[in-house]
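Figure 6 in text form: structure in, sequence out.
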C-alpha cells in the first residue's frame, strides 16, 4: 500500500558536487534524501507521498447537501456520485438536515449522525468552512469542496480560501478544492489493458479530450481536478501517481502552481522512477497568465523559469491539448527504445521527404541505412526508388507479401529504434493491407511503430478497427504531433538514463563563506560595486585587484600598487548603470590620467547628485568573452540562477539560460549549450577557446550563494564576468547586489 512513509529512492551511483567557500571541485557520493531532510536554506529535500488510496477508492462516503429534487444542481451531482459509488463498491450516505431519504437512501441530518465512519465527504454546500469541525469530530480523512468564490475572485476570496485551508490543516483533513468538480468520480473503462495515463487538471473541461482517449483504446486510471488547491495540490497527485504500478504516464493541464518547490519534489520522484510527465502549462503570454489567475487564483510564474524548471526534472512541456493526448499516449504505452534512429517508410517519395524534413528539423536522427540493408530492400522495392531513409516503396509492394518483408527488414536494422509510416490518405485495399501488416509486425518486435493516418474522416475500418485496435502501434492524425511525440519519447528515455536527483547533491550544511557574507550584507539596501565584489570574494569568486579611494592622491598610489593600465569607476550603492552616465574610465596608463579621471568622475557625480562612497581603481583585465551570471527570486521557485552573454548589450541580446537550484556541473554546462552565442566560448575568428570550466565554477559558486543567502539576497548581477582563455579562469569585473 502507498503511504506517507515511502522510502528513499535509489540515486544514481555517481555524483559530482562542488564545494564552496573557495574550495576546488571534488567528487563525492551523495547521501540520498530522506524524510525531514532540508537544504542549507531550510527548504525540504524530500516530500512524502500522500496516502490517497481511500480518496479514490473509499469504503464509505458521505454526500453533504445531497438532493433528489429535479432541476437542482445538487441532484445531478448526487446521482453521479451514487452511480460512481456503486461501481467502486463504496457505501454512500446522504446528509441533509431537511430530508429523510435521497433517491431511496436513508438520509441523516448531520455528519455527526452518520451510521459508520466514512473515508470521504463530498460537500455540496456554499460555505464548507463551518463543516470542517464536524468532519474532524467524525474522523473523516478526505473532503471535496465544489464551492466557488475563493481565490479566483480576488483578495477577499483569497482570504476566505486561506481560512478554509487553515481550518483543514488544524483538523488533519485533506481537502480537494474548492472550485473543483466531479471529474475524480468519472466512469473509467475497466476493459482496457496495459499501462494507464493518470490525469491532473486545474480546469475540468480542459481534461475532457484526454478522458475520451478511452474511446480510442487508451487506458486512463485516475483524474484529479485540483481546482484552487487550498490543500491538496497538483504536486500531491503527481507524487502519488508516480508511485502507482499501473501508471504509464502522467498528463497535466496546469494554469499555475501552488508551490514551485513541491512541484519539483514531485517531478523528481517521477523522474527517479522513470515515469513520464507531460504538461500543458498556461502562462506563456501576459493574457494567458492573467486569465489563468482569474480562473483558479494561482501564480503562473515567469515562463522562462517554469520552462527551465520543468526541463531540469524531465517534465515534457507541450502547448496544445492534442499534443498532450498524443505525447502522453505514446509515452504511456511504448517500450524503452533500443536505438535512437528513426526510419521513415512510405508509399510516396513526397510523403517520405515531407516527414523527413519535419523530423530532421526537430532534431530526430534519420540514419542512412547500410548498403547491405538497402540491397536487401531492393529485393522487394524497384531499384529506381530511394531506400536509404526515407524508404519509398512506390506503392505496389504494400499490396502483397512484399509489404511485410520490407517492414520486418527495417525493424531488424540495429540503428532503427522507431519505424514511422505516414499514410496521408486511405487507398483500399492497399492501405488496409499496410495497416494490418504494421499491426502484425508490432506484435513481434520490441521496437516502436508509429503510423500517421492523414485522412480527416477517421471512420475508415483500417484506422478505426485495425490501427486503433492495436496497443502496440501508436497512431497519430498529424505529422507534427507524431514528430513531437517521438522526440519527447526519445528525450525522456535519454533523460531518465542519466538522471541523478539534484536534491541528493543539495548542500545541507552552511559553508564557511556564509559567515563572511552575512557580515557584508545590508538589509533592504543595494550594495555598491565594491561591496558586491567583496560578497563574491567571500564565495571564492575571483575579482580584479582594486582599491576604493576618496582622493586623487590615493587614486595615484592605488594605481601604482595595482599596476598600470588601470580602470577607474565611480562607486555608490544606487549606481547600477555607470557606463551610461560616463562614470567609467578605461586603460589609464599614467598618474596624470588617473588624477584627471578622478576629477572628472567626482564632478559628474556632483552634477548628477550621486552620493559617492568613493572611486574604484581596478586592475585592467585582458579581453575575453563577456558573460553575465546572476541570481533573482522567483515567486514560485525561490532563488534562480541565470547565465548568458553579458556586457553593455545584455538587455538587447537577451541570450540567457536559467535554472532553479540545486543543480550540478552537468546542468551548468547544459545552460551554456542553450545559449545562441555558445560558439563564442569555443573561440571565433582566430580567437582562443575560453575557460569553460572556470565559467562553470563561477556558476556553481553563485548557485551556492543563491541557496545560502536565499533569505537575504534579493538580486545579484555579475556583468561582465570576463571569461579568459582556457586555463585562466574568469574574473567578475562588475557586480550589483540587492539585499532583502
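Output sequence:
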Amino acid at each position: 500500500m502507498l503511504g506517507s512513509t515511502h522510502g528513499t529512492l535509489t540515486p544514481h551511483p555517481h555524483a559530482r558536487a562542488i564545494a564552496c567557500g573557495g574550495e576546488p571541485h571534488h567528487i563525492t557520493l551523495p547521501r540520498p534524501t530522506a524524510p525531514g531532510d532540508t537544504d542549507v536554506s531550510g527548504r525540504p529535500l524530500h516530500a512524502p507521498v500522500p496516502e490517497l488510496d481511500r480518496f479514490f477508492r473509499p469504503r464509505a462516503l458521505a454526500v453533504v447537501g445531497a438532493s433528489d429534487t429535479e432541476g437542482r444542481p445538487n441532484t445531478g451531482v448526487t446521482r453521479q456520485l451514487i452511480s460512481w459509488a456503486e461501481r467502486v463498491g463504496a457505501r454512500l450516505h446522504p446528509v441533509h438536515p431537511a430530508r429523510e431519504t435521497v433517491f431511496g437512501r436513508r438520509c441523516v441530518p448531520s455528519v455527526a449522525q452518520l451510521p459508520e465512519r466514512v473515508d470521504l465527504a463530498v460537500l455540496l454546500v456554499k460555505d464548507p468552512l463551518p463543516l470542517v469541525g464536524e468532519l474532524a469530530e467524525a474522523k473523516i480523512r478526505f473532503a471535496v469542496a465544489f464551492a466557488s468564490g475563493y481565490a479566483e475572485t480576488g483578495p477577499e476570496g483569497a482570504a476566505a480560501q486561506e481560512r478554509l485551508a487553515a481550518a483543514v490543516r488544524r483538523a488533519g483533513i485533506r481537502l480537494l478544492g474548492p472550485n473543483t468538480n466531479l471529474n475524480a468520480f468519472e466512469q473509467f473503462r475497466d476493459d482496457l489493458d496495459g499501462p494507464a495515463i493518470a490525469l491532473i487538471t486545474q480546469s475540468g473541461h480542459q481534461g475532457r479530450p484526454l478522458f475520451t482517449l478511452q474511446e480510442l483504446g487508451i487506458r486512463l486510471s485516475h483524474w484529479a481536478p485540483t481546482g484552487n488547491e487550498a490543500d491538496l495540490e497538483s504536486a500531491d497527485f503527481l507524487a502519488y501517481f508516480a508511485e502507482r504500478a499501473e501508471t504509464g504516464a502522467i498528463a497535466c493541464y496546469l494554469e499555475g502552481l501552488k508551490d514551485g518547490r513541491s512541484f519539483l519534489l514531485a517531478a523528481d520522484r517521477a523522474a527517479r522512477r522513470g515515469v513520464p510527465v507531460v504538461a500543458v502549462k498556461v502562462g506563456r503570454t501576459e493574457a494567458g497568465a492573467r486569465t489563468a489567475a482569474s480562473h483558479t487564483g494561482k501564480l503562473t510564474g515567469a515562463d522562462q523559469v517554469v520552462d527551465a524548471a520543468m526541463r531540469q526534472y524531465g517534465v515534457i512541456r507541450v502547448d496544445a491539448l492534442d499534443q498532450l493526448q498524443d505525447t502522453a499516449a505514446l509515452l504511456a504505452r511504448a517500450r524503452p527504445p533500443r536505438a535512437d534512429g528513426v526510419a521513415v517508410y512510405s508509399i510516396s517519395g513526397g510523403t517520405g521527404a515531407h516527414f523527413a524534413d519535419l523530423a530532421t528539423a526537430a532534431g530526430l536522427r534519420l540514419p542512412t541505412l547500410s548498403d547491405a540493408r538497402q540491397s536487401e530492400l531492393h529485393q522487394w522495392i524497384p531499384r529506381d526508388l530511394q531506400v536509404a531513409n526515407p524508404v519509398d516503396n512506390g506503392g505496389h509492394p504494400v499490396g502483397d507479401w512484399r509489404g511485410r518483408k520490407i517492414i520486418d527488414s527495417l525493424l531488424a536494422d540495429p540503428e532503427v529504434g522507431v519505424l514511422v509510416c505516414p499514410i496521408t490518405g486511405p487507398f483500399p485495399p492497399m492501405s488496409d493491407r499496410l495497416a494490418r501488416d504494421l499491426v502484425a509486425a508490432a506484435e513481434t518486435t520490441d521496437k516502436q511503430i508509429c503510423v500517421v493516418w492523414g485522412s480527416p474522416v477517421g471512420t475508415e475500418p483500417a484506422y478505426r478497427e485495425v490501427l486503433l485496435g492495436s496497443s502496440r502501434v501508436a497512431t497519430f492524425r498529424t505529422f507534427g504531433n507524431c514528430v513531437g511525440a517521438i522526440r519527447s519519447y526519445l528525450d525522456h528515455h535519454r533523460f531518465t538514463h542519466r538522471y541523478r536527483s539534484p536534491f541528493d547533491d543539495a548542500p545541507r550544511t552552511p559553508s564557511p563563506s556564509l559567515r563572511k557574507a552575512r557580515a557584508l550584507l545590508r538589509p533592504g539596501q543595494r550594495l555598491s560595486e565594491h561591496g558586491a565584489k567583496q560578497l563574491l570574494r567571500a564565495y571564492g569568486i575571483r575579482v580584479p585587484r582594486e582599491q576604493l579611494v576618496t582622493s586623487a592622491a590615493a587614486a595615484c598610489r592605488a594605481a601604482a600598487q595595482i599596476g598600470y593600465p588601470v580602470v577607474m569607476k565611480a562607486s555608490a550603492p544606487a549606481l547600477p548603470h555607470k557606463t551610461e552616465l560616463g562614470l567609467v574610465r578605461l586603460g589609464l596608463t599614467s598618474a596624470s590620467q588617473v588624477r584627471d579621471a578622478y576629477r572628472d568622475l567626482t564632478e559628474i557625480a556632483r552634477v548628477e547628485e550621486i552620493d559617492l562612497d568613493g572611486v574604484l581603481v581596478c586592475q585592467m583585465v585582458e579581453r575575453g568573452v563577456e558573460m553575465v551570471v546572476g541570481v533573482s527570486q522567483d515567486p514560485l521557485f525561490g532563488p534562480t540562477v541565470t547565465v548568458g552573454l553579458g556586457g553593455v548589450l545584455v538587455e538587447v541580446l537577451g541570450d540567457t539560460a536559467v535554472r532553479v537550484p540545486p543543480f550540478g556541473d552537468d546542468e551548468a554546462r547544459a545552460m551554456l549549450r542553450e545559449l545562441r552565442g555558445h560558439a563564442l566560448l569555443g573561440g571565433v575568428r582566430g580567437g582562443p577557446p575560453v575557460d569553460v570550466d572556470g565559467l562553470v565554477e563561477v556558476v556553481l559558486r553563485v548557485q551556492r550563494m543563491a541557496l545560502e543567502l536565499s533569505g537575504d539576497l534579493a538580486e545579484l548581477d555579475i556583468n561582465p564576468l570576463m571569461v579568459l582563455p582556457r586555463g585562466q579562469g574568469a574574473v567578475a569585473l562588475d557586480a550589483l547586489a540587492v539585499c532583502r
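Caption detail: The two ends are 45 Å apart (CA to CA).
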